[in-house]
Amino acid sequence: MEKLIFFHFFLVFIFLFVYLSNNFKVMIKFLKRKIKRRRVKKKLLELKNFYDIIDPGRLADINDCKFIFRNVLRHINSIYEIAPLSSHRIVENKKLGIFIILDDKKITIINHVCYYSNIPLSDREWKKMVNMYDNKVQENRMKRIDQMKSQVEYSLLKLKNRILIKTKNPSLE
User: Fold this and answer.
1) Which residue has the higher pLDDT, 173 or 107?
2) Quick one: angle between helices 2-20 and 24-51, nearest 10?
3) Which of 106, 108, 116, 125 could form a disulfide with 60 if both were Cys (CB 3.0 to 4.6 A apart)?
4) Which residue has the higher pLDDT, 18 or 36?
5) Would you say 163 and 173 are in contact if contact means Cβ atoms under 8 Å apart?
6) Are 65 and 120 in the same domain?
7) Structural domains of the chain, count
8) Distance set, CA 65 to CA 116, 119, 133 (Å)
9) What strands, in cross-sheet order, belong to the sheet with 98-103?
10) pTM above the 0.85 mark?
């Protein structure tokens, strides 16, 4: 039925085009191009359906997954890991009981009740999520470096004071 409606629409469109167009060669060229585009679009759709893997994780709402990811990423008790060889980005939160893996434009969310795997993300969503993750890891790394530096300065000051005290009173050993 859908093909029949499309065919009638296409015939009406051709009739209007021929009626309004004075150049017959341009019209033929246009029709050939339209038919080629239609064939290519149909072939691409077949290929897309052929390579689509039906996964129960796809039933999950992508917006819900993004919401969960953003909130777990911001949570205080989250632990961040990056696998250097596979480039997996992992967020683990034991308090919430959630484990999230970002890999190859797909997100996997695991908790004790549900398991959503390989939920596809668009390029834009993937870039946003990876950027958020990388920024959060960078922010935490900078905080840890500052904390380590502050501890080192304090401990060096302590060591200096100990050395000064020991050199002034060598009998305290």
Assistant:
1) 107
2) 160
3) 116
4) 36
5) no
6) yes
7) 2
8) 9, 8, 14
9) 79-82, 89-93, 98-103, 106-111, 115-120
10) no
